[in-house]
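sry for the spam today, last one i promise. struct tokens for design, 392 residues
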């Protein structure tokens, strides 16, 4: 093991930021769509304008990247002062980031914590999530009744919806809320080993009602990417606040007027998109949103900085990259270029929701093996660098 560590001495932990700046110059700019969308329908079987964006987003073929670990941000070889003086033949180092075989082309896992001691404390501490804990964020739009044709790639049939729910239960998945996700991402706080975030975009009281019996049966929650616009009818507010009173809805922001972020969108417009939903959701639902679901999946550096300033702790795109884990977010080039992994979290599409769960199980199982194999190295690193002198 020591020899292995020596070999890996230069390959360290969090290289996210430098990695991004060095490897990924320029965003693909793949997402270009109309700025304000007609996606305000409140009926159950509605056409989702994300369709175009979704297709463009997946059709892109990013340059394949090296599968080696990101360049280290800090060279810990000479790095942190030695801790408690434990005796080692060599200076401990952290192994490379977990890179499963199932990773899609052009997608790489990105670490977002730059303090390895804090990371290890949360990895190895008590009452934390077990290694290999995955979260599968899935975005839902329309769910179509049996007699209605499907003519877009964001709708699913009732039959597929039911199959998804059954598969999720069979595989032992359960839902978490956005707050639980944030606590997991920040502190590795304990969540179910197979977790999902079911996110329903736009304003869909009918689809929300379809979810309710499952939520009650399974003791699950549904996260809403809610459009907070003035144009929302009173009857819709009534239905939604009734449903929210069950405690099963986790209401988050999907903008105010569902404006797609683009260069020509004014700062004032972005401000409205980000700040008005906080005001409206607090007033209507009594909770403050901490996630912003980017309308159309569009984001840029300016909007991300403003969203962070507004207090949003996570953001979701429409890029399907894979399940997420603690300090481990699979990202493609456009998201990596933002250097803010938590604000551009991936989401699977409802049309492949069953496969998403199966993929997540594979990643979780592979990750368990990986983390089990490196646990000694992680503990050695922690003892060597992270414990204050004379602490034991
Ligand atoms: Zn939307």
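last one done:
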């Amino acid at each position: 093991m020591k020899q292995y560590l020596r070999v890996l001495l230069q390959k360290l932990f969090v290289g996210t930021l430098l990695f991004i700046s060095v490897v990924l110059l320029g965003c693909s700019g793949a997402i270009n769509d109309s700025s304000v969308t007609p996606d305000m329908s409140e009926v159950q079987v509605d056409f989702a304008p994300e369709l175009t964006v979704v297709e463009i987003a997946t059709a892109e073929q990013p340059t394949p990247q090296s599968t080696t670990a990101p360049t280290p941000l800090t060279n810990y070889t000479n790095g942190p002062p030695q801790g408690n003086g434990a005796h080692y033949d060599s200076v401990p180092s952290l192994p490379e980031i977990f890179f499963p075989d199932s990773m899609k082309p052009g997608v790489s896992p990105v670490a977002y914590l730059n303090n390895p001691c804090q990371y290890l404390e949360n990895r190895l501490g008590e009452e934390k999530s077990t290694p290999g804990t995955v979260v599968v964020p899935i975005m839902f739009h329309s769910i179509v009744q049996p007699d209605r044709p499907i003519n877009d790639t964001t709708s699913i049939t009732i039959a597929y919806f039911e199959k998804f729910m059954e598969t999720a239960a069979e595989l032992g998945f359960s839902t978490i809320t956005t707050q639980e996700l944030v606590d997991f991402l920040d502190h590795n706080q304990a969540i179910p080993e197979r977790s999902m975030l079911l996110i329903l975009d736009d304003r869909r009281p009918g689809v929300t009602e379809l979810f309710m019996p499952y939520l009650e049966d399974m003791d699950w929650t549904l996260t809403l990417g809610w459009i907070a616009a003035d144009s929302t009818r009173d009857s819709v507010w009534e239905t939604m606040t009734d449903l929210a009173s069950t405690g099963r809805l986790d209401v988050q922001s999907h903008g105010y007027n569902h404006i797609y972020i683009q260069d020509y969108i004014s700062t004032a417009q972005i401000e409205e998109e980000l700040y008005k939903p906080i005001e409206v959701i607090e007033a209507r639902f009594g909770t403050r949103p901490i996630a912003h679901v980017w309308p159309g999946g569009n984001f840029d550096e300016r909007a991300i900085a403003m969203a962070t300033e507004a207090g949003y702790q996570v953001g979701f795109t429409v890029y399907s990259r894979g399940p997420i884990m603690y300090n481990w977010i699979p990202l493609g080039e456009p998201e990596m270029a933002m250097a803010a992994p938590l604000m551009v979290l991936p989401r699977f599409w409802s049309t492949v929701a069953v496969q998403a769960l199966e993929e997540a199980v594979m990643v979780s199982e592979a990750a368990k093996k990986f983390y089990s194999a490196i646990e000694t190295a992680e503990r050695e690193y922690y003892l060597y660098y992270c414990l204050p002198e004379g602490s034991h």
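The two ends are 24 Å apart (CA to CA). ok im logging off now
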